[in-house]
Amino acid sequence: MKAKLTYSKNFTVGKIDPRIYGSFVEHLGRCVYGGIYEPTHPTADENGFRRDVLELVRELGTPIVRYPGGNFVSGYNWEDGTGPRDKRPVRTELAWHTLETNEVGIDDFAGWAKKAGVEIMQAVNLGTRGPQEAKDLVEYCNFPGGTELSDRRRANGHEEPFGVKVWCLGNEMDGPWQTGAKKPVEYARIAREAAKLMKWLDPSIELVACGSSNMWMPTFGEWEATVLDETFDMVDYISLHSYYANRDKNMPKFLASSVAMDKFIKSVVAICDYIAAKKHSSKKIMLSFDEWNVWYHSDEATAEIPMWSIAPPQLEDVYDFADALVVGSFLTTLMNNCDRVKMACIAQLVNVIAPIMTRNGGGAWRQTIFHPFALSARYGRGETLRPALDCPTYDVDGDAVPYLEAAGVLNEEAKELTIFAVNRSIDEPLELEINLENIDATLFERILVGHDSFDATNTETDPDNVAPVTTSTSEPTVGGKLSVTLEPHSYNVLRFKI
Known about the structure:
The protein is α/β, with parallel strands linked by helices. Helices cover 26% and strands 27% of the residues. It has an 8-stranded parallel beta barrel, surrounded by 6 helices. A 7-stranded antiparallel sheet has the order 2-15-19-20-25-22-23, covered by helices on one side. A 4-stranded mixed sheet has the order 16-1-21-24, with no helix packed on it. The longest helix is centred in the middle third of the chain and has 22 residues.
């Protein structure tokens, strides 16, 4: 099977915002307790955070982490997670039917984020609370001092403001599963009023309005249009959430999941631009795809967990090699839509549908999906080039799906071009002709994430069963052309020196 991929540095999609490689920490299952935080663990630091997990988070390369939810945030009192730990209340947590000890809150998470080298994307509760509480949290986090709330932060041991710049106006407020769910106009009004107070207090912050919980919601489209019509002049982003699965065991269809992601993105962009046109505005609302991943492996195990547990093992998908290929394809899709997708968060960071897995009191290891994410975050910096692709396709529900999923990223500062390429074919190698117009480059490194079995997983005892294999090379383009062969069902990173 043969394909041709052409890039020119004269034709770009846009500059990648590194925040498309974001992640997500929710007070759910063992993401926080037993994940990033375990004070009795041998590697725990003075604040109870696992150093082994911190090292893997730094290696993953995520620059921003959404916190503290998720469904959790819609019933959360942010004040519960501040001040001395021994005085914090234990609460019933209705989103996931557990008990929340509040040992970790914004005070602690801000310290962890600084150590991890990540920015915080903070969500506010617009389910059971409203604009006043949202404004109060901004003041607690960002106001220098001299007010009751900012001085409360200082009294809690944090003299300097946390400086949180990105704020989510609630979470999935259209979902009937959400605490305090809203109709489109109800959410639109409360989001606008919260945004107004928050930006009056700190005009430098960026705000994300809730989009539909997924594109299959009955109000999808209507929700986005109603919310943006009301909040257009106050917000900077609208959110997208979507999870993907292989429940019917149809591998060719599963490997094409990124086609659905791309359609979702383009649909929301169209709605954003419709509202801008309606308002005769040149403003562009950007997209924050702040929940995405593969999610289906853990459904049955999660259903058996008793209610009102503390940090039970919920949603602990054990990812296989097929999932790594799909996650790699999602990342190329985000790169190829970087003109409008400026932030995105793989959900979640540790244990809960996550690239990092831990054992309480034991090890921490990289799941299969860790590798395409870390490679993308490391090398997917710069400008995405607009592709011209000539490639065989196969049919999935009426869509012609190319066997090759690819993104080309030009980093002028590093004088590098990186091509991320997924061969979706189950059993055929792909002979790929790369044509680089006005780019004089030499292929110097190839990174392969591959495996014979789609079912291959990584475990604590075999953490590198699925892992990248790096090969150094020196292959100059001839007349701007170079041919490479991609193994069947493989994820590839091709690094060129310009």
